[in-house]
Amino acid sequence: MFNDMPTEIKERMEVLSRIDEMDRKDGTPHLKRLRQIPAETGKFLALSLSNAPAGTAIEIGTSAGYSTLWMALACRETGGNIITFEILEEKAIMAKETFRAAKVDDIVELINGDAKEFLNGIKDISFCFVDCEKEYYAEYYEAIIPKMVSRGLFLADNAISHGDVLKPFIDNVLSDENVDAMIVPVGKGVLYCRKR
Fold first, then answer.
1. Cα–Cα distance measured from residue 25 to residue 138, given in angstroms and rounded to the nearest whole number
2. Quick check: pTM over 0.85?
3. Whose CA is closest to 99, among 114, 117, 112?
4. Which domains does the chain have, with CATH numbers?
């Protein structure tokens, strides 16, 4: 999966990484920055998704599609696909170009809109990665876990870097009897939950 990464995916990842690095240095406003995950988190997502049970894979918070590309590697390996949601139109336009350039638009469905408005129509969720504004994590968790298949995986980014803001949410998840959960110290920290 990682050693034979298609050239188109690798090249687009490099383009997005350069943009993300410039965003962090040039004072680009917070909401306009790409705010990408590090590559090690991307690999962790790909490995997790490739081992998830059968069902629907979703991502909430596409940005320009960098994290989605990592998960697309897993989809290529398993024959699956992924639905990804981005609420900001400017980023959704970039993501659409990312998926076209990386030649994964056949396995990635991009929805420009609020995921909350679409979740009712999605069943049998087997994998979910959340990387959006932190105040919405709990709301997405509560909406997704009941729709998740047994042994399905719910992952949320920034569990360590934003641990102070996310503490009430994380404490709630760690004590939820419907899941087995822990924080994995990869990248900025990933809250990793498996539904029982």
1. 31
2. yes
3. 112
4. 7-195 (3.40.50.150)
